[in-house]
Design a protein that fits this description.
The chain is mostly helical and about 500 residues long. Helix content is about 70%, strand content about 5%. The protein has a domain at about 120-155 and about 190-465. The chain has a two-stranded antiparallel ribbon with strand order 1-2. Strands 3-4 form a two-stranded antiparallel sheet. The protein has a two-stranded antiparallel sheet with strand order 5-6. Helix 7 packs antiparallel against helix 16 and helix 8 (about 220-240) packs antiparallel against helix 15 (about 405-425). Mean pLDDT is about 80; it is low at about 1-10, about 75-90 and about 490-495.
Length: about 500
Protein backbone atom coordinates (compact mmCIF):
# COMPACT_ATOMS: atom_id res chain seq x y z
CA UNK A 1 0.00 0.00 0.00
CA UNK A 2 1.39 3.43 -0.92
CA UNK A 3 1.63 5.75 2.06
CA UNK A 4 1.85 9.53 2.10
CA UNK A 5 3.67 9.27 5.44
CA UNK A 6 6.57 7.02 4.53
CA UNK A 7 8.99 6.68 1.67
CA UNK A 8 11.99 4.44 1.12
CA UNK A 9 14.18 6.78 3.20
CA UNK A 10 11.82 6.94 6.20
CA UNK A 11 9.24 9.63 6.96
CA UNK A 12 8.15 11.60 3.92
CA UNK A 13 8.35 15.41 3.77
CA UNK A 14 4.53 15.57 3.79
CA UNK A 15 4.40 13.76 7.14
CA UNK A 16 7.08 16.03 8.66
CA UNK A 17 5.24 19.15 7.48
CA UNK A 18 1.97 17.72 8.84
CA UNK A 19 3.50 17.12 12.29
CA UNK A 20 5.07 20.62 12.35
CA UNK A 21 1.76 22.26 11.47
CA UNK A 22 -0.10 20.29 14.14
CA UNK A 23 2.58 21.17 16.69
CA UNK A 24 2.46 24.90 15.87
CA UNK A 25 -1.34 24.93 15.88
CA UNK A 26 -1.46 23.11 19.22
CA UNK A 27 1.08 25.46 20.77
CA UNK A 28 -0.87 28.53 19.67
CA UNK A 29 -4.15 27.14 21.01
CA UNK A 30 -2.82 25.97 24.40
CA UNK A 31 -2.12 29.52 25.57
CA UNK A 32 -5.66 30.64 24.70
CA UNK A 33 -7.81 27.83 26.14
CA UNK A 34 -8.28 26.27 29.62
CA UNK A 35 -5.90 23.47 30.56
CA UNK A 36 -8.63 20.80 30.63
CA UNK A 37 -9.73 21.64 27.11
CA UNK A 38 -6.14 21.71 25.88
CA UNK A 39 -5.52 18.31 27.46
CA UNK A 40 -8.69 16.88 25.93
CA UNK A 41 -7.78 18.26 22.51
CA UNK A 42 -4.28 16.82 22.81
CA UNK A 43 -5.65 13.39 23.66
CA UNK A 44 -8.14 13.60 20.79
CA UNK A 45 -5.42 14.54 18.29
CA UNK A 46 -3.19 11.73 19.57
CA UNK A 47 -6.00 9.19 19.21
CA UNK A 48 -6.72 10.50 15.70
CA UNK A 49 -3.10 10.08 14.61
CA UNK A 50 -2.79 6.63 16.19
CA UNK A 51 -6.08 5.58 14.59
CA UNK A 52 -4.99 6.84 11.20
CA UNK A 53 -1.64 5.06 11.32
CA UNK A 54 -2.97 1.83 12.89
CA UNK A 55 -6.73 1.60 13.37
CA UNK A 56 -6.44 -1.87 14.92
CA UNK A 57 -4.90 -0.41 18.06
CA UNK A 58 -7.72 2.13 18.25
CA UNK A 59 -10.32 -0.62 17.96
CA UNK A 60 -8.82 -2.37 20.99
CA UNK A 61 -9.27 0.83 22.99
CA UNK A 62 -12.81 1.17 21.68
CA UNK A 63 -13.72 -2.36 22.81
CA UNK A 64 -12.35 -1.70 26.30
CA UNK A 65 -14.25 1.59 26.53
CA UNK A 66 -17.60 -0.01 25.63
CA UNK A 67 -18.20 -1.05 29.25
CA UNK A 68 -15.48 0.83 31.07
CA UNK A 69 -16.19 4.46 30.18
CA UNK A 70 -18.07 7.10 32.22
CA UNK A 71 -21.41 8.58 31.23
CA UNK A 72 -22.29 12.24 30.83
CA UNK A 73 -25.96 13.27 30.65
CA UNK A 74 -27.28 16.14 28.55
CA UNK A 75 -30.86 17.28 28.90
CA UNK A 76 -33.04 16.91 25.86
CA UNK A 77 -36.36 18.35 25.01
CA UNK A 78 -39.51 16.45 24.46
CA UNK A 79 -42.55 17.05 22.35
CA UNK A 80 -45.87 18.54 23.34
CA UNK A 81 -49.33 17.25 23.99
CA UNK A 82 -48.63 14.22 26.12
CA UNK A 83 -45.24 13.62 24.55
CA UNK A 84 -42.16 13.20 26.64
CA UNK A 85 -41.32 16.43 28.43
CA UNK A 86 -37.65 15.74 28.86
CA UNK A 87 -35.17 13.18 27.60
CA UNK A 88 -31.60 12.68 28.74
CA UNK A 89 -29.03 12.31 26.00
CA UNK A 90 -26.41 10.03 27.56
CA UNK A 91 -22.93 10.40 26.10
CA UNK A 92 -19.94 8.32 27.14
CA UNK A 93 -16.23 8.41 26.47
CA UNK A 94 -16.59 5.79 23.76
CA UNK A 95 -19.04 8.07 21.91
CA UNK A 96 -16.34 10.70 21.56
CA UNK A 97 -13.75 8.00 20.91
CA UNK A 98 -15.92 6.56 18.16
CA UNK A 99 -16.26 9.99 16.53
CA UNK A 100 -12.49 10.49 16.55
CA UNK A 101 -11.77 6.99 15.24
CA UNK A 102 -14.55 7.42 12.69
CA UNK A 103 -13.03 10.62 11.33
CA UNK A 104 -9.61 8.98 11.10
CA UNK A 105 -11.23 6.05 9.28
CA UNK A 106 -12.91 8.42 6.80
CA UNK A 107 -9.55 10.12 6.26
CA UNK A 108 -7.92 6.75 5.52
CA UNK A 109 -10.67 5.94 3.05
CA UNK A 110 -10.15 9.27 1.29
CA UNK A 111 -6.38 8.81 0.99
CA UNK A 112 -6.28 5.06 0.40
CA UNK A 113 -9.08 4.84 -2.11
CA UNK A 114 -8.35 1.16 -2.73
CA UNK A 115 -9.64 0.37 0.77
CA UNK A 116 -13.18 1.29 -0.23
CA UNK A 117 -15.69 2.99 2.04
CA UNK A 118 -18.40 0.64 3.28
CA UNK A 119 -17.42 -2.93 2.53
CA UNK A 120 -20.27 -4.80 0.90
CA UNK A 121 -21.81 -7.32 3.32
CA UNK A 122 -25.09 -9.30 3.38
CA UNK A 123 -26.44 -6.91 6.04
CA UNK A 124 -25.87 -3.61 4.24
CA UNK A 125 -29.29 -3.26 2.64
CA UNK A 126 -31.13 -4.19 5.83
CA UNK A 127 -29.12 -1.66 7.84
CA UNK A 128 -29.71 0.98 5.17
CA UNK A 129 -33.46 0.38 5.10
CA UNK A 130 -33.81 0.58 8.89
CA UNK A 131 -31.68 3.75 9.12
CA UNK A 132 -33.71 5.42 6.38
CA UNK A 133 -36.94 4.46 8.15
CA UNK A 134 -35.69 6.00 11.42
CA UNK A 135 -34.53 9.19 9.71
CA UNK A 136 -37.73 9.67 7.68
CA UNK A 137 -40.02 8.94 10.63
CA UNK A 138 -38.10 11.30 12.91
CA UNK A 139 -37.90 14.06 10.29
CA UNK A 140 -41.66 13.77 9.81
CA UNK A 141 -42.11 13.93 13.57
CA UNK A 142 -40.01 17.10 13.71
CA UNK A 143 -42.06 18.75 10.97
CA UNK A 144 -45.32 17.90 12.75
CA UNK A 145 -44.04 19.12 16.13
CA UNK A 146 -44.01 15.74 17.86
CA UNK A 147 -40.22 15.43 18.04
CA UNK A 148 -37.83 17.90 19.61
CA UNK A 149 -35.07 18.66 17.11
CA UNK A 150 -32.16 18.18 19.49
CA UNK A 151 -33.25 14.94 21.14
CA UNK A 152 -34.48 13.46 17.86
CA UNK A 153 -31.24 14.28 16.06
CA UNK A 154 -28.95 12.91 18.76
CA UNK A 155 -30.93 9.74 19.36
CA UNK A 156 -31.01 8.86 15.65
CA UNK A 157 -27.30 9.63 15.53
CA UNK A 158 -26.72 7.14 18.33
CA UNK A 159 -28.71 4.51 16.41
CA UNK A 160 -26.39 5.03 13.45
CA UNK A 161 -23.36 4.92 15.76
CA UNK A 162 -23.86 1.19 16.31
CA UNK A 163 -23.71 0.55 12.58
CA UNK A 164 -20.54 2.65 12.28
CA UNK A 165 -18.96 0.23 14.78
CA UNK A 166 -20.03 -2.64 12.52
CA UNK A 167 -18.65 -1.12 9.32
CA UNK A 168 -15.37 -0.02 10.90
CA UNK A 169 -14.81 -3.54 12.23
CA UNK A 170 -15.79 -5.22 8.94
CA UNK A 171 -13.47 -2.98 6.94
CA UNK A 172 -10.50 -3.75 9.17
CA UNK A 173 -10.78 -7.51 9.70
CA UNK A 174 -8.46 -9.43 7.42
CA UNK A 175 -6.81 -12.27 9.39
CA UNK A 176 -7.52 -14.92 12.03
CA UNK A 177 -5.10 -13.35 14.52
CA UNK A 178 -7.30 -10.24 14.68
CA UNK A 179 -10.42 -12.30 15.36
CA UNK A 180 -8.66 -14.10 18.19
CA UNK A 181 -7.23 -10.91 19.69
CA UNK A 182 -10.51 -8.98 19.52
CA UNK A 183 -12.30 -11.92 21.13
CA UNK A 184 -9.77 -11.95 23.97
CA UNK A 185 -10.13 -8.19 24.51
CA UNK A 186 -13.93 -8.51 24.59
CA UNK A 187 -13.55 -11.23 27.25
CA UNK A 188 -11.11 -9.15 29.29
CA UNK A 189 -13.50 -6.18 29.19
CA UNK A 190 -16.35 -8.33 30.47
CA UNK A 191 -14.14 -9.92 33.14
CA UNK A 192 -13.22 -6.48 34.49
CA UNK A 193 -16.86 -5.33 34.38
CA UNK A 194 -17.96 -8.56 36.12
CA UNK A 195 -15.41 -8.16 38.92
CA UNK A 196 -16.59 -4.59 39.48
CA UNK A 197 -20.17 -5.88 39.47
CA UNK A 198 -19.37 -8.60 42.02
CA UNK A 199 -17.83 -5.92 44.25
CA UNK A 200 -21.26 -4.22 44.34
CA UNK A 201 -23.04 -7.33 45.71
CA UNK A 202 -22.29 -6.65 49.42
CA UNK A 203 -24.01 -3.25 49.16
CA UNK A 204 -27.37 -4.99 48.71
CA UNK A 205 -28.23 -2.85 45.67
CA UNK A 206 -28.90 -4.29 42.22
CA UNK A 207 -25.67 -4.79 40.33
CA UNK A 208 -25.12 -2.55 37.30
CA UNK A 209 -22.33 -1.87 34.83
CA UNK A 210 -19.35 0.31 35.83
CA UNK A 211 -19.57 4.09 35.51
CA UNK A 212 -23.34 4.23 34.99
CA UNK A 213 -23.71 7.69 36.53
CA UNK A 214 -26.09 8.51 39.35
CA UNK A 215 -28.57 5.74 38.58
CA UNK A 216 -27.43 2.35 37.39
CA UNK A 217 -29.07 0.24 34.71
CA UNK A 218 -29.06 -3.39 35.94
CA UNK A 219 -31.20 -4.53 33.01
CA UNK A 220 -28.61 -3.19 30.58
CA UNK A 221 -25.76 -4.94 32.38
CA UNK A 222 -27.81 -8.14 32.50
CA UNK A 223 -28.40 -8.09 28.75
CA UNK A 224 -24.70 -7.50 28.07
CA UNK A 225 -23.70 -10.39 30.34
CA UNK A 226 -26.15 -12.73 28.61
CA UNK A 227 -24.62 -11.77 25.25
CA UNK A 228 -21.10 -12.48 26.52
CA UNK A 229 -22.16 -15.77 28.12
CA UNK A 230 -23.56 -16.77 24.72
CA UNK A 231 -20.19 -16.12 23.11
CA UNK A 232 -18.34 -18.08 25.79
CA UNK A 233 -20.82 -20.95 25.50
CA UNK A 234 -20.27 -21.17 21.73
CA UNK A 235 -16.49 -21.26 22.20
CA UNK A 236 -16.81 -23.87 24.94
CA UNK A 237 -18.91 -26.19 22.79
CA UNK A 238 -16.51 -26.08 19.83
CA UNK A 239 -13.19 -26.15 21.69
CA UNK A 240 -11.19 -29.37 21.46
CA UNK A 241 -8.72 -28.64 24.24
CA UNK A 242 -9.66 -29.53 27.84
CA UNK A 243 -7.56 -26.56 28.93
CA UNK A 244 -9.64 -24.08 26.94
CA UNK A 245 -12.90 -25.74 27.91
CA UNK A 246 -11.97 -25.29 31.57
CA UNK A 247 -11.07 -21.64 31.02
CA UNK A 248 -14.36 -20.93 29.22
CA UNK A 249 -16.31 -22.69 31.95
CA UNK A 250 -14.66 -20.62 34.69
CA UNK A 251 -15.22 -17.39 32.77
CA UNK A 252 -18.90 -18.19 32.22
CA UNK A 253 -19.27 -18.87 35.95
CA UNK A 254 -17.67 -15.49 36.69
CA UNK A 255 -20.12 -13.75 34.33
CA UNK A 256 -23.07 -15.58 35.90
CA UNK A 257 -22.50 -14.18 39.40
CA UNK A 258 -23.16 -10.50 38.56
CA UNK A 259 -25.91 -11.59 36.14
CA UNK A 260 -27.84 -13.11 39.04
CA UNK A 261 -27.46 -10.00 41.19
CA UNK A 262 -28.65 -7.61 38.47
CA UNK A 263 -32.08 -9.03 39.45
CA UNK A 264 -33.02 -8.45 35.80
CA UNK A 265 -35.90 -10.75 34.95
CA UNK A 266 -35.68 -9.91 31.24
CA UNK A 267 -32.05 -11.09 31.27
CA UNK A 268 -32.86 -14.28 33.16
CA UNK A 269 -35.70 -15.10 30.78
CA UNK A 270 -33.33 -14.60 27.81
CA UNK A 271 -31.12 -17.42 29.11
CA UNK A 272 -33.68 -20.14 28.26
CA UNK A 273 -34.10 -19.42 24.50
CA UNK A 274 -30.36 -18.85 24.31
CA UNK A 275 -29.76 -22.33 25.72
CA UNK A 276 -32.38 -23.87 23.44
CA UNK A 277 -30.65 -22.28 20.44
CA UNK A 278 -27.38 -23.89 21.53
CA UNK A 279 -29.11 -27.28 21.79
CA UNK A 280 -30.69 -26.92 18.34
CA UNK A 281 -27.54 -25.87 16.46
CA UNK A 282 -24.71 -27.43 18.46
CA UNK A 283 -23.39 -30.89 17.69
CA UNK A 284 -23.06 -31.58 21.43
CA UNK A 285 -26.75 -31.87 22.16
CA UNK A 286 -26.40 -34.65 24.73
CA UNK A 287 -23.95 -32.60 26.78
CA UNK A 288 -26.27 -29.57 26.71
CA UNK A 289 -29.37 -31.58 27.60
CA UNK A 290 -27.51 -33.22 30.49
CA UNK A 291 -26.39 -29.77 31.63
CA UNK A 292 -29.96 -28.49 31.45
CA UNK A 293 -31.24 -31.37 33.59
CA UNK A 294 -28.45 -30.74 36.10
CA UNK A 295 -29.25 -27.02 36.31
CA UNK A 296 -32.97 -27.64 36.78
CA UNK A 297 -32.10 -30.06 39.59
CA UNK A 298 -29.49 -27.97 41.44
CA UNK A 299 -30.03 -24.27 40.62
CA UNK A 300 -33.33 -23.76 42.52
CA UNK A 301 -31.56 -24.78 45.73
CA UNK A 302 -28.32 -22.90 45.01
CA UNK A 303 -29.81 -19.51 44.11
CA UNK A 304 -29.14 -16.61 46.51
CA UNK A 305 -32.15 -15.46 48.56
CA UNK A 306 -32.31 -12.10 46.73
CA UNK A 307 -32.67 -13.91 43.41
CA UNK A 308 -35.36 -16.23 44.77
CA UNK A 309 -37.34 -13.28 46.12
CA UNK A 310 -37.10 -11.50 42.79
CA UNK A 311 -38.46 -14.57 41.00
CA UNK A 312 -41.26 -15.18 43.49
CA UNK A 313 -42.43 -11.57 43.64
CA UNK A 314 -43.48 -11.79 39.99
CA UNK A 315 -46.49 -13.94 40.89
CA UNK A 316 -46.62 -13.77 44.69
CA UNK A 317 -46.57 -10.05 45.40
CA UNK A 318 -49.06 -8.82 47.96
CA UNK A 319 -52.33 -7.67 46.43
CA UNK A 320 -51.95 -4.10 45.20
CA UNK A 321 -53.79 -1.75 42.90
CA UNK A 322 -52.83 -2.05 39.23
CA UNK A 323 -51.90 -5.73 39.21
CA UNK A 324 -52.99 -7.65 36.13
CA UNK A 325 -53.90 -11.29 35.71
CA UNK A 326 -52.75 -13.68 33.01
CA UNK A 327 -54.60 -16.99 32.90
CA UNK A 328 -55.66 -16.53 36.49
CA UNK A 329 -52.10 -15.72 37.68
CA UNK A 330 -51.66 -12.35 39.36
CA UNK A 331 -48.63 -10.38 38.02
CA UNK A 332 -46.64 -7.90 40.14
CA UNK A 333 -47.12 -4.14 39.70
CA UNK A 334 -43.86 -3.61 37.76
CA UNK A 335 -44.67 -6.20 35.09
CA UNK A 336 -48.32 -5.08 35.07
CA UNK A 337 -47.31 -1.45 34.44
CA UNK A 338 -45.15 -2.56 31.54
CA UNK A 339 -48.00 -4.56 30.04
CA UNK A 340 -50.29 -1.56 30.47
CA UNK A 341 -47.85 0.63 28.56
CA UNK A 342 -47.80 -1.94 25.73
CA UNK A 343 -51.59 -1.81 25.42
CA UNK A 344 -51.61 2.00 25.45
CA UNK A 345 -48.87 2.19 22.80
CA UNK A 346 -50.82 -0.09 20.46
CA UNK A 347 -53.87 2.12 20.89
CA UNK A 348 -51.84 5.31 20.25
CA UNK A 349 -50.01 3.73 17.31
CA UNK A 350 -53.25 3.60 15.32
CA UNK A 351 -53.13 7.42 15.13
CA UNK A 352 -49.86 7.33 13.15
CA UNK A 353 -49.58 3.77 11.83
CA UNK A 354 -47.28 4.29 8.83
CA UNK A 355 -44.35 6.39 10.12
CA UNK A 356 -45.17 6.50 13.83
CA UNK A 357 -44.41 9.43 16.11
CA UNK A 358 -40.70 9.69 15.26
CA UNK A 359 -37.77 8.71 17.47
CA UNK A 360 -38.30 10.39 20.91
CA UNK A 361 -41.71 11.61 19.74
CA UNK A 362 -43.56 9.28 22.09
CA UNK A 363 -43.09 8.82 25.82
CA UNK A 364 -40.42 6.44 27.08
CA UNK A 365 -41.12 2.73 26.69
CA UNK A 366 -38.94 -0.10 27.94
CA UNK A 367 -39.95 -2.62 25.26
CA UNK A 368 -38.04 -2.73 21.97
CA UNK A 369 -40.70 -4.04 19.60
CA UNK A 370 -43.43 -1.72 20.83
CA UNK A 371 -41.02 1.21 20.83
CA UNK A 372 -39.94 0.59 17.24
CA UNK A 373 -43.58 0.31 16.18
CA UNK A 374 -44.70 3.50 17.95
CA UNK A 375 -41.57 5.50 16.96
CA UNK A 376 -41.19 4.50 13.31
CA UNK A 377 -44.56 2.99 12.44
CA UNK A 378 -45.14 -0.10 10.37
CA UNK A 379 -42.41 0.93 7.91
CA UNK A 380 -39.74 1.01 10.61
CA UNK A 381 -41.07 -2.10 12.34
CA UNK A 382 -40.92 -4.20 9.16
CA UNK A 383 -37.37 -3.06 8.34
CA UNK A 384 -36.30 -3.74 11.94
CA UNK A 385 -37.72 -7.29 11.93
CA UNK A 386 -36.08 -7.96 8.55
CA UNK A 387 -32.75 -6.81 10.00
CA UNK A 388 -33.11 -9.20 12.95
CA UNK A 389 -33.96 -12.10 10.63
CA UNK A 390 -30.97 -11.27 8.42
CA UNK A 391 -28.65 -11.24 11.46
CA UNK A 392 -29.90 -14.64 12.55
CA UNK A 393 -29.68 -16.11 9.05
CA UNK A 394 -26.13 -14.87 8.54
CA UNK A 395 -25.06 -16.31 11.87
CA UNK A 396 -26.50 -19.70 10.88
CA UNK A 397 -24.91 -19.47 7.43
CA UNK A 398 -21.49 -18.76 8.94
CA UNK A 399 -21.82 -21.60 11.43
CA UNK A 400 -22.59 -24.12 8.67
CA UNK A 401 -19.91 -22.72 6.33
CA UNK A 402 -16.76 -22.45 8.46
CA UNK A 403 -14.66 -25.34 9.81
CA UNK A 404 -12.22 -23.59 12.13
CA UNK A 405 -13.17 -24.29 15.78
CA UNK A 406 -12.74 -20.66 16.81
CA UNK A 407 -14.90 -19.51 13.91
CA UNK A 408 -17.60 -22.11 14.59
CA UNK A 409 -17.62 -21.21 18.28
CA UNK A 410 -18.06 -17.49 17.59
CA UNK A 411 -20.83 -18.06 15.04
CA UNK A 412 -22.64 -20.50 17.34
CA UNK A 413 -22.37 -18.00 20.19
CA UNK A 414 -23.66 -15.24 17.91
CA UNK A 415 -26.73 -17.30 16.96
CA UNK A 416 -27.52 -17.95 20.62
CA UNK A 417 -26.73 -14.34 21.54
CA UNK A 418 -29.02 -12.96 18.85
CA UNK A 419 -31.88 -15.19 20.02
CA UNK A 420 -31.20 -14.05 23.60
CA UNK A 421 -31.19 -10.37 22.63
CA UNK A 422 -34.42 -10.79 20.67
CA UNK A 423 -35.98 -12.27 23.83
CA UNK A 424 -34.44 -9.61 26.07
CA UNK A 425 -36.04 -7.00 23.81
CA UNK A 426 -39.53 -7.99 24.93
CA UNK A 427 -38.99 -6.17 28.20
CA UNK A 428 -36.12 -3.84 27.31
CA UNK A 429 -34.92 -1.48 24.57
CA UNK A 430 -32.07 -3.89 23.90
CA UNK A 431 -31.27 -2.91 20.31
CA UNK A 432 -30.81 0.77 21.12
CA UNK A 433 -28.83 0.37 24.35
CA UNK A 434 -25.24 1.51 23.81
CA UNK A 435 -23.57 -0.91 26.20
CA UNK A 436 -25.23 -3.90 24.58
CA UNK A 437 -25.28 -2.84 20.95
CA UNK A 438 -21.68 -1.72 20.51
CA UNK A 439 -20.23 -5.10 21.53
CA UNK A 440 -23.09 -6.87 19.72
CA UNK A 441 -22.41 -5.15 16.39
CA UNK A 442 -18.66 -5.68 16.77
CA UNK A 443 -19.45 -9.33 17.40
CA UNK A 444 -21.69 -9.33 14.30
CA UNK A 445 -18.90 -7.84 12.18
CA UNK A 446 -16.53 -10.64 13.19
CA UNK A 447 -19.07 -13.36 12.44
CA UNK A 448 -20.04 -11.88 9.06
CA UNK A 449 -16.40 -11.82 7.89
CA UNK A 450 -15.49 -15.35 9.03
CA UNK A 451 -16.47 -17.25 5.84
CA UNK A 452 -14.45 -14.82 3.72
CA UNK A 453 -11.45 -14.99 6.04
CA UNK A 454 -11.46 -18.79 6.09
CA UNK A 455 -11.77 -18.96 2.30
CA UNK A 456 -8.83 -16.57 1.89
CA UNK A 457 -6.79 -18.60 4.39
CA UNK A 458 -7.49 -21.80 2.42
CA UNK A 459 -6.52 -20.11 -0.85
CA UNK A 460 -3.29 -18.86 0.73
CA UNK A 461 -2.42 -22.32 2.08
CA UNK A 462 -3.23 -23.85 -1.31
CA UNK A 463 -0.99 -21.35 -3.07
CA UNK A 464 1.88 -21.99 -0.66
CA UNK A 465 1.53 -25.73 -1.26
CA UNK A 466 1.52 -25.20 -5.04
CA UNK A 467 4.66 -23.06 -4.82
CA UNK A 468 6.34 -25.69 -2.66
CA UNK A 469 5.40 -28.47 -5.07
CA UNK A 470 6.70 -26.44 -8.00
CA UNK A 471 9.93 -25.82 -6.14
CA UNK A 472 10.32 -29.52 -5.33
CA UNK A 473 9.57 -30.51 -8.92
CA UNK A 474 12.21 -28.09 -10.14
CA UNK A 475 14.76 -29.55 -7.74
CA UNK A 476 13.79 -33.07 -8.80
CA UNK A 477 14.15 -32.16 -12.47
CA UNK A 478 17.58 -30.71 -11.78
CA UNK A 479 18.61 -33.87 -9.93
CA UNK A 480 17.50 -36.05 -12.87
CA UNK A 481 19.47 -33.92 -15.34
CA UNK A 482 22.59 -33.99 -13.20
CA UNK A 483 22.36 -37.77 -12.93
CA UNK A 484 21.96 -37.89 -16.71
CA UNK A 485 25.32 -36.18 -17.11
CA UNK A 486 24.36 -32.53 -17.54
CA UNK A 487 27.09 -30.36 -15.96
CA UNK A 488 25.86 -28.51 -12.84
CA UNK A 489 27.42 -25.29 -14.06
CA UNK A 490 25.23 -25.42 -17.17
CA UNK A 491 22.09 -25.83 -15.03
CA UNK A 492 23.09 -22.84 -12.86
CA UNK A 493 23.78 -20.74 -15.95
CA UNK A 494 20.45 -21.67 -17.51
CA UNK A 495 18.70 -20.96 -14.18
Amino acid sequence: MTSIFNDKNGFSPIFIIFVLLITLLSASLIIHVPGSIALGAGIAISIFIVSFVNINEALYVLILSMLLSPEIGFGGGGGEGGMEAKRAIALRFEDFLLVIIGFSWFARMAIYKELGFFLKTPLNRYIRNYVIACIVATAWGMMTGRVNYKSGFFFVLKYIEYFIVYFMAVNNLYERKQIKNYTVVMMITCIIASIIGIAQVPTGARVSAPFEGETGEPNTFGGYLVLMISMIAGLFLTAESIKYKTIYLLISFLFTIPLMFTLSRASWIAILPMYLALIIFSERKKLLIAGLVLMITIVPFALPSAVKQRVLITTQQQIQKGQKRIGGIRIDTSASARMESWQESLKDWTEHPILGYGVTGYRFMDAQYFKVLIDTGMVGFVTFVMLLIALLKQGIHTYHTVNDNLYKGLSLGFIAGTVAMMTHSIGSNTFIIVRIMEPYWFFAAMVITLPTLEAEEKNLVHKVKEDKITELLTEEEAKIKVEAGTPLVDLITKK
